[in-house]
Design a protein that fits this description.
Layout: E1 2-6, H1 30-45, E2 50-54, E3 57-58, H2 65-75, E4 78-82, E5 86-87, E6 90-91, H3 92-103, E7 109-112, E8 115-116, E9 120-121, H4 122-132, E10 139-143, H5 145-148, H6 164-168, E11 174-176, H7 177-187
Parallel strand pairs: 1-2, 2-7, 3-6, 4-10, 8-11
Antiparallel strand pairs: 5-9
C-alpha cells in the first residue's frame, strides 16, 4: 500500500530537517492529526507499505499556492507572503513518477519526497513564481506568520524534510523545484 502523508504530522519547530523515522509527532492542526492517524493505522495493519511524506504540493488539479499567487496577480500589484515558514515544494507529476518507481520495487518503508533545490520560504516561492510568469509588476512583501495573521489553521514553521533515504534505496530524487515550476507554468498557461 502507498500512503501519502505530510510534514504536518510533526510539531514544525526548529530548523533541522525531519528524518523519515523521526517520531516527534505533535500535529498543530486537525489535518495533521488525521494524517498521523492514517500513518499509525497503516503501520498497524499493513506489512508492506510505502509511507511518503510530502510538503507544499502543487499541480494541475486542485487549489495550490502557485494558482493562488497567479490569481492574486490578476487583481493586485502587491501581495504579502510569509517568510518564516521554511520547506520545499512538491510538484505532483514528479511525485507520481517517484511513486510509480517505488511501487515497482519492494523497498518498503517511510520516505520523504519533495523537489530538490534547497529549503525556501513561501516568500521565496512567490518571488520565483512571479519571476517565471513574467509578472514583474508584482511587489512581494515578506511578513512573519504573526504579521500575516489570516490563517485559520496553525501551520508549521519547519517543513524541512530529509530525503536522503530515497538515494540510499536507489530512488531518483525529484528535479529542482524551479524546473518543476517552469514545467508547471508551461503546461498550465492560460
Amino acid at each position: 500500500m502507498t500512503y501519502i502523508s505530510t510534514d504536518y504530522v510533526f510539531h514544525g519547530n526548529g530548523e533541522k530537517a525531519w528524518q523519515p523515522d523521526d517520531e516527534g509527532f505533535a500535529p498543530l492542526n486537525y489535518y495533521g492529526w488525521t494524517k498521523l492517524e492514517g500513518e499509525l493505522a497503516l503501520k498497524r495493519h499493513v506489512e508492506k507499505y510505502f509511507l511518503v511524506r510530502i510538503a507544499w504540493a502543487f499541480g494541475a488539479n486542485g487549489n495550490n499556492f502557485v494558482k493562488i499567487m497567479l490569481n492574486l496577480a490578476k487583481k493586485f500589484d502587491t501581495v504579502r507572503v510569509v517568510n518564516d515558514q521554511i520547506g520545499t515544494p512538491t510538484y505532483t507529476p514528479d511525485l507520481a513518477r517517484l511513486l510509480a518507481d517505488m511501487n515497482e520495487s519492494e523497498k518498503f518503508g517511510i520516505y520523504h519526497a519533495t523537489n530538490e533545490g534547497g529549503y525556501i520560504s513561501w516568500y521565496d516561492f512567490a518571488c520565483e513564481i512571479f519571476k517565471q510568469a513574467n509578472l514583474n509588476h508584482m511587489n512581494v512583501l515578506p511578513v512573519t506568520t504573526e504579521e500575516y495573521g489570516l490563517s485559520k489553521a496553525k501551520r508549521p514553521f519547519n517543513s524541512r524534510l530529509d530525503k536522503s533515504k530515497l538515494t540510499l534505496n536507489g530512488f531518483k530524487l525529484l528535479p529542482d523545484w524551479r524546473d518543476a515550476l517552469r514545467r508547471y507554468l508551461a503546461a498550465n498557461a492560460n
